[in-house]
């Protein structure tokens, strides 16, 4: 466990989460379509987990403290150091807990971790314009709209436009040592 609120805990995603994760993805297929595709089989999950091997992507589960149930998943993707000090996030609620506010709390914990422990300066969320629930979530968390990227990601058999939203670290901010001094 990395960090908590009174209602949720943020846990690193591991190979031992495979069965629970895949079962929740299958149960949430209608909720996720057409916005995203997550691994729903053991084989796909193991292959997908390799994206976290080099540390440039980090995966987490958002668990309900009271029950231990997984409410959703969130990733910090494409961590770039140097002058950028940023990353993007991707996330998905799971159907049994969708609409409960757990994702807002869990993503807030993820952002806190990104800005304090990872010492990132900027986090982006790219969202398909029709995904109203996801757009409302980033707005609740204080992200600012930056524009639309046409044909940004290949999802559900086509290149999809995405709105780009971002949040920068609160001040004061302690930079990562990889940030050049000048």
From TrEMBL:
EC code(s) of this entry: 2.3.-.-
An annotated Gene Ontology molecular function: protein-N-terminal-alanine acetyltransferase activity
Top-level class of the enzyme under EC nomenclature: transferase
Key words, A-Z: Acyltransferase, Transferase
Domain N-acetyltransferase intervals: 8-170
Signal sequence residues: none
Pfam families: Acetyltransf_3 (PF13302)
GO CC annotations, alphabetized: cytoplasm
InterPro entries in alphabetical order: Acyl_CoA_acyltransferase, GNAT_dom, N-acetyltransferase
Similarity comment: family membership: Belongs to the acetyltransferase family. RimJ subfamily.
Protein's name according to its UniProt entry: GNAT family N-acetyltransferase
